[in-house]
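Single-chain item
Fold in token form
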Amino acid sequence: METDATHTPPDSLSSSQLQQLERLRNGYMVSQAMYVVATLGIADVLRHGPLHCDELARSTGTNESMLYRVLRFLSSVGIFKEVSPRCFAVTSLGSGLRTDIAGSIRPMTILVSHESIQRAWSNLLHTVTTGDIAFDHAHGMGFFDYIGEHPDVADAFHLAMSSEATSSSSDTTIADAYDFSGMQRLVDVGGGEGRLLASILHAYPALHGTLFDLPEVVANAHEVLSAAGVADRCEVIGGDFFAAVPAGADGYLLQQIIHDWDDARASAILRRCRSGMSPSSRLLVVETAIPPDDTDAFPVLQTDMQMMVLAGGLQRSDDGYRALFTEAGFQLSRIVPLGDASAYSIFEGVPV
């Protein structure tokens, strides 16, 4: 990306700068077109080879002319390729929208471009002006209350959260990067259907686990835990981490939970964990921190914006986690990076 060498604003822009600005401005067009083809499953239909737009339209129940224009547009950014007139193939890049490929971004693409999310983003100016949460202003309720009343959005959310693109970035590396051998029981707070906990229990055969999340979220956890061969070592408990967290464990793990909340509510969650811990217990918060140089921070700052718009949450720097831990009764004892392939780190806290 082209950047200015100085901090002095120019009197005019070059043609390449104008084109770059236009690309940035029009990024929503690409994301919405990706949402359409992800929802229709076009990449899956094309996984065996190119098809004419007529056949694609018939198989997806769409208007051939309009579908052609969307596919042609996405071909211009490398997601599809028009191999012959009105005949399209999915590229290696576009294969990331298939459901059967490791690291698929299809579930998250469907979630973040859903009408309810985009409506919240249209209220970003309101958030910047007032400090209110955009989603709450747009829908009259908080994001998590909303998905409780809208099963379609809830399904999209839970699928995105459990998708390999979301979980594989840190699941397997957590068991490699952190030594759980000194623990007898680990509680995964807000652990969804248990994929992360299952990966850790699989790596540590002597470890027992407790999966803790809302009752409707953990309802299908037994299938995940059984498939991993760890169901006999894992207790599943439904509950609300703002009310109480299972007590008496050696470790309390929260992966991508704290960034959903502002400092007051994040501290409240950590205090619930603190109340059930012994002096030797450990708090393990898995998040991506904002690096000191904003020019290297684009991916995590995208997430920060999403948290701001949807739930009033935020990404934090290392110092931000240190301050949050102190507020909740912990000392930040160390930060364990999950390796060059992952942007995540484990923020370890000890009770004080």
